[in-house]
Structures are given as structure tokens and as C-alpha cells.
Amino acid sequence: MHPTDQAIEGLHDHRGQELVNMAWLADRLQYFVDLNPEFEVPVDRLATWLARLDDPDDE
Questions:
Q1: In the prediction, which pLDDT does 59 show?
Q2: Cβ distance 43 to 28 under 8 Å?
Q3: Model pTM?
């Protein structure tokens, strides 16, 4: 199992029952990047992917 898979499963197991909104998630991602600027590119890619997830032009 890839370490990322384990981390995602851990997130699901630990906080999977919580509901969050996108504004909260965006704030948490920005805070994470502020603390860890070396992760700016992958967080940017994830945020872009999430923002366009239901965009019919990307299909």
C-alpha cells in the first residue's frame, strides 16, 4: 500500500464522519502551505483539481 493511501485511509477513519465546506478546506490548505511552502505546487494541483472536478470542459 502506498503511504498516501494509508494517510487517506487514516483521514477517513479518524474524521470521516465530519462534514466540512469548501471554504473551510481552502483555509486549511492555505494554512498548510503557509507552514510548509515546499508543498505549494502539489497543494495547488490538488486545489485546482478539486475546483474543476465537475467542470464539463475538463472531460
A1: 56
A2: no
A3: 0.78
